[in-house]
Write a structure and sequence with these properties.
- The chain is α/β, with parallel strands linked by helices.
- The chain folds into two domains: about 130 residues, 3-Layer(aba) Sandwich (Rossmann fold), CATH 3.40.50.2300; about 70 residues, Arc Repressor Mutant, subunit A (Orthogonal Bundle).
- A five-stranded parallel β-sheet has the order 2-1-3-4-5, with helices on both faces.
- Helix 3 links the parallel strand 3 and strand 4.
- Helix 7 crosses helix 9 and helix 7 crosses helix 10.
- The longest helix has 15 residues.
- The protein is globular and about 50 Å long.
């Protein structure tokens, strides 16, 4: 029997852009957590709003490939802005290097989507009891951590929610005018955000800011040195 039954979280957010997976996770957990409220997010913007509106969230289950965010940037944002909320990555990518990076960036656990439901519920139970969970032997024989990437994550964590959204839109190739339209703000306001973003990231221009964000992508080959 899963250890999840030992903990009764009030609110769990399931953040994944695949509705069938969200439903499967909710149904599996609900059988043992009848009183838990499950909230769903199909984009990172929706997830941000849910966490802002529900400050008593006990756990976030986060897919690494959410619309509206690049790679580990979303994880970094959540862990730094809401340090009391454990974030567990649930991903189809079970590369040990990816798992290690996720844990270094603050994830409370990393669960491959290929795991059985028993394993998933046991992993969540461990996290709810304050443990850090990852697949057995997933972190053996790996190179040391990339301190420069972690320093970049610390700088990115200084961004305000609006600045973070602007940076993610910049990473998608949107121009200031397009970003302003999406966020319903003036182009001058967007330019001010871009200037602040460059200052906080320690870069000199827009291109360097986008490249900095891309360093937190999941498949960046230059992350482990």
């Amino acid at each position: 029997m899963s250890r999840l039954i030992a903990i009764q979280p009030e609110t769990i957010i399931v953040a994944d852009d695949h509705p069938l997976f969200r439903s499967a996770i909710k149904e599996a957990l609900a059988t043992q957590q009848g009183k838990t409220r499950f909230l769903e997010a199909n984009s990172f913007e929706t997830l941000q709003q849910l966490v802002d509106d529900n400050r008593e969230v006990d756990l976030v289950l986060l897919d690494l490939h959410m619309p509206g965010v690049t790679g580990f940037a979303g994880l970094v944002y959540l862990c730094k802005r809401y340090p009391s909320v454990p974030v567990v990555i649930i991903s189809a990518n079970d590369d040990p290097v990816v798992i290690q990076r996720a844990l270094e960036h603050g994830a409370a656990g990393f669960i491959p989507k290929s795991s059985s439901m028993d394993t998933i519920t046991d992993a969540i139970a461990a996290v709810l009891m304050g443990e850090i969970w990852s697949p057995p032997s997933s972190l053996s024989d790996l190179p040391g951590r990339n301190d420069s990437e972690l320093q970049l994550a610390e700088r990115m964590a200084q961004l305000t929610p609006q600045q973070f959204k602007v940076l993610m839109m910049m990473s998608k190739g949107l121009l200031n005018k397009q970003i302003g339209y999406e966020l319903k703000v003036s182009e001058a306001t967007v330019k001010a955000h871009v200037t602040a973003i460059m200052s906080k990231l320690g870069v000199n221009n827009r291109t360097q800011a986008v490249l900095a964000a891309e360093r937190l992508s999941v498949n960046n080959p230059n992350t482990m040195t």
